[in-house]
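For the sake of transparency, this paper describes our internal protein records without simplification. Because each token names a local backbone shape, the row as a whole describes the fold. One such record is reproduced below, unchanged from the form in which we store it:
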Amino acid sequence: MTEKKVSLTAKLINGGVAGLVGVTCVFPIDLAKTRLQNQQGIRAYKGMLDCLAKTLRSDGYFGCYRGAAVNLTLVTPEKAIKLAANDVFRQKLSKDGKLPLWGEVLAGCGAGTCQVVVTTPMEMLKIQLQDAGRLAAQRPVARPTPAAAGPAPSPVPHPPTRPHKLSATGITAELLKTRGLAGLYKGAGATLLRDVPFSMIYFPLFANLNALGRDQTGSQSDVQERAPFWQSFAAGCTAGSVAAVAVTPLDVIKTRLQTLQKGEGEDTYRGIIDCTQRIMRREGPQAFLKGATCRALVIAPLFGIAQVVYFLGVGETLLGLLG
């Protein structure tokens, strides 16, 4: 049995469209995940719903999409590279239309490695913008009083407000000026440690779930029947949530390493090992699962939607219209 050949250009278009649709749907939950993972000591938020509610009150609806522009700009090449690279590796490793489990895992490993080129700077910029509201909520401010009113009152907590002046272009310019290109790739090692295992779990699991219930015994001349869209969606959600939870500890480490601005009493880390040791010592092993629920709620629909769009063949249709 052989799989239908799809051009690389169509794969890139499908991956890009899938990423845009998915990110637009789940970005607020991703913002909550970042803020929850960065909490050390001072708990500005009790959980995902509390974080989203406070963000809505302080920043309005669009505050839940802080940093989304970066994601929407870079998610197209990121998702395109991930999905297309996995398909290319699977085709190269297949023999007579069949791919053993080790080949599926190796293809996922290759896809996760390729995407880090885009993922690292995208995550770096997104995290700074997403975390700005949490840091603002911790910042004390004193109420202005007349000069003759006696001693100044003690600072009171500053409610998170809108005027975060951070921007992706501003952060990028500052990092390039002070740290060079390496500044945008801070945490690249942790990103690689997260994305490679994720892809090694996700893609084989998705492929096998997506193949359930379909005849796999046809002749080599048969074209593999595509799963219905609901099966692709369910398979993408299930595989995405399992892989997301599995690598959450690595995601916590990556988020901490890539956060440039720290709140009061929060640690600055020298690397992956130092970050792991400090989190374990100060916060305990449960800290490595911070944001696990949010991450599963982000990744499950993100990859479910992505796989549906991908398997609908938007790229093939568009190329057909243009051709």
Notes: Confidence is low (pLDDT under 50) at residues 156-164, 217-223.
